[in-house]
Amino acid sequence: MRSAPLAPHRAGTEPAPSVHTTAEPQRPGPYTRSVRPSRSFTFLLLTVVLVAGVRLPLAAAGLQVMGMSDYSTLIPVVAAALVPLRQTLIVGLANLAAGIAAYGIIFAQNMSHASRITVITALVASLLVALAVCRARIAAEGRLKHLMVSRERLALLSEASSRVGSTLDVTRTAEELAEVTVRRFADHAAVDLFGPVLKGEEPAPGPHGGPVTLRRAARRSVPASLAAAASPGCNVVTYCRGSVPALSLLRGVPMCEEVTDSADAGNCWPAGPAGADADAQVPHSALAVPLRARGVTLGAALFTRSRHRDAFDTNDVLLAQEIAARAAVCMDNACRYTHERATSVALQRSLLPQVVPQQPAVHAVARYLPADSRMGVGGDWYDVIPLSGARVALVVGDVVGHGVHASAAMGRLRAAVHTLADIDLPPDELLTHLNDIVIRLQTEAAYTPAGGGEGTVEAGIGEFVATCLYMDYDPISQQCTAARAGHPPPVVVHPRAGADFLDVPAGPPLGVGGLPFETAEVHLPEDSLLALYTDGLVESPHHGLDERLERLLKALSEPMPSLQATCDHVLDMLVDNRTRDDVALVVARTRALDEAHTAAWDLLDDLAEVARARDLASFQLAQWGLPDAAFNAELVVSELVTNAIRYGGSPVQLRLIRHNALICEVSDGANTAPHLRRARTYDEGGRGLFIVAQLAERWGTRQRTDGKTIWAELALPPTRVSAHATL
Questions:
Q1: What Cα–Cα distance (Å) separates residue 464 from each residue in 408, 409, 590?
Q2: Are the CB atoms for 566 and 574 separated by under 8 Å?
């Protein structure tokens, strides 16, 4: 076995030595070769013998044999048009020998000396003419064959340029490279890549001296060529130190190898061929080309030819190097795209809730499907936000557009919704404030800082347009308040009725401006089903919107054993593998907190009611079996009722709510909200809210149309929390 690197010749350096030592003349790679005598050569030799043999009976019959010389002179000319130069010479010499023997010896008595000289001279002339014609024909065929081979190589290069890299997928690009080169360039082709490349990551820096372990991304072979290189399902390939592929990766140049022994094929291919025709299928020429892009080695492409084809020559190496270079650029682009998409999807998912928290008001399940790879990540988001008074907010939104900018804008809007929901704004007011935030984001996006610090206006002002649906559900009153900004309406499935869309006034999208947002209130009995979704679920280029909405209602109307099964069923019916937008889906089943979990009392506008409020709270906690929480609850109730009577006004109400925590609410008729401050050493008051903040897990203020409500959430003992966790 002989191997040597083949690289383009550079000025000032010696050309790479040839690796071909076969006796047969080398022909361009795509063509096969013949080492056996042709049928035309055998037929011409038989013709010479036949013509010489016919002269004997003619001479015996006393017939004129001079005309047979005309046929003898045609035989070398015919050979010049059919067989190679060496075979033409053999036929001409045989014909000349037969002519000299016939006309100079056998038929000497019947011919004059001048006639014999004339015939033999004609035979010699025909031989010389035949050699000249044959040489001219071979030269013309060589030029034509060279043009055909060059044309074939250009066609192969053009096909590789158009077919390789049609997708932004590393594995598919490797398969396209193998498909293009097999049969027209090689009998067997394999593309081996480093493991990180298939994941969209940068491979380890070189040099790769071996042993080197790669992943076989693609392998193709002609039906009668080399057998499979590895067992089915095995895609790990190891290049031993000193093997031709390992040397190619180490030096960064193509390496060509001529296999002189079937045992040497293991340096290129892990397994040899099998079958009756194994000798003809063993590769006798192998070529390893490194796949490099941006100075980084991604892997190697391996090509082999079996014995019925010519070995790889320098022109073949240059062609393979050019195809591999273009394929490497496509693979690098696909690798970088895979990495960027994985980063974008990771960013998108990190900005979404990792888990849907369990709420006493609803049992919710959410699903998110990223957009198709050709569209990029989107800006869909969802949220299940706990509110005061055991209420819950269900939110679904969509930032118009795709890409990292849409994901970043989605994260900012989701944080803004959390902040606005924390101060207990009604849905219409929350969307109004959110609309102002989107308009502010548009202003920031319209100006991009330049190098000198000044802003330049860009045409991206509509990038942060978004839609949103915000729903507020109270499990005590079982009232749901909803408002939407350009978003599809939610679906409600009542326990004893079918699915229908909730009639929520359609406000303008966020950032567009125009009409104010309006709310809709609806009574939802316990076990009602709510479905919030983004437009990616119902919009499709292949179906109308009305048809998709009807399919959504049908999917939600069918009974399912769990909410997870309901989500999966909806996605199976409406989401296909064709081009689609990202999808966010939230399905929630409402719960109710009855009188066994709540207690409310109206109080007089008199400070004497503070003691009564403490007694009422203590008695109620005793009935609920929470005596351990009575002390903290009495302190909180005392401070809140005192502040409501002293600084608020009628009507004053105390309400206790029990679920997985204890909520104390005190309502009054004033609209002014209290503020927490640190009292100075000699101040007589100002410590009430500070005490509440220290005892409560959370506390806050909720505005109402006829006043405000101050609430505080107290933690229950661990045993009580586990007892009420299933409510």
A1: 10, 7, 33
A2: no
Q: Of 582, 581, 553, 580, whose CA–CA distance to 569 is shortest?
A: 553
Q: Is the per-residue pLDDT at 66 higher than 70? A: no
Residue pair 177/191 in contact (Cβ under 8 Å)? The answer is yes
CA–CA dist 366, 506 (Å, integer)? 23
Q: 563-574 vs 545-557: helix axis angle to the nearest 10?
A: 150
pLDDT score of 86 more than 70: yes
How far CA 344 is from CA of 374, 379, 583, in Å, comes to 13, 11, 16
Distance CA(259)–CA(267), nearest Å, equals: 9
**Chain centroid to CA 262:** 41
pLDDT at 715 over 80: yes
Answer whether residue 222 shows pLDDT above 90: no
Per-residue pLDDT at 418: 93
Buried-state track 218-247, b at ≥16 Cβ within 10 A, e below 16: bbbbeeebbeebeeeeeeebebeeebbbbb
**Cβ(222)–Cβ(187) under 8 Å?**
yes
DSSP 8-class letter at 543 = B
CB 80 within 8 A of CB 130: yes
In 534-644, which ranges are E strands?
A: 583-590, 598-603
What pLDDT is stored for residue 470 in this prediction? 96
Rounded CA separation 718/727 (Å): 15
Distance CA 90, CA 96 (A): 10
Tokens standing for residue 708: 């405000």
Q: Which amino acid is at 684?
A: E
Q: Where does the pLDDT of residue 30 fall: very low under 50, low under 70, confident under 90, or very high at 90 and above?
A: very low
On whether the CB atoms of residues 383 and 349 are closer than 8 A, the answer is no
C-beta separation of 598 from 640 below 8 A? no
Cα–Cα distance list, 538 to 323, 373, 401, 547, 566 (Å): 44, 19, 17, 9, 16
The model's pTM: 0.68
The answer to whether 265 and 272 have CB atoms below 8 angstroms apart is: yes
Q: What is the pLDDT of residues 372-416, one digit of tens each?
A: 666 667 788 999 999 998 999 999 999 888 777 888 888 899 999
DSSP per residue, 637-696:
HHHHHHHIIIII-S-EEEEEEESSSEEEEEEES--PPP---PPPTT-SS--HHHHHHHH-
The per-residue pLDDT of the chain, averaged, comes to 79
How far does the chain reach from its first CA to its final CA, in angstroms?
79
Residue 578 backbone zone (phi > 0: left; psi -120 to 50: alpha; other: beta): beta
Tens-place pLDDT, residues 94-147: 877 877 777 666 655 566 677 777 777 877 888 888 888 888 888 888 888 778
How far is Cα of residue 163 from the mean position of the Cα atoms in its chain?
A: 18
**pLDDT at site 385:** 93
DSSP 34: -
Which has the closest alpha carbon to 44: 80, 1, 8?
80
* Contact call for residues 589 and 562 (beta carbons, < 8 A): no
Contact 171, 235 (CB under 8 A): no
* 578 SS3 class: coil
> What single DSSP character describes residue 396?
E
Cα separation, 632 vs 715, whole angstroms: 10
Report d(CA 116, CA 639) in Å as an integer: 145
- Dihedral-angle region of residue 415 (phi above 0 means left; psi in -120 to 50 means alpha; beta otherwise): alpha
In which residue are the tokens 């408002």 written?
483
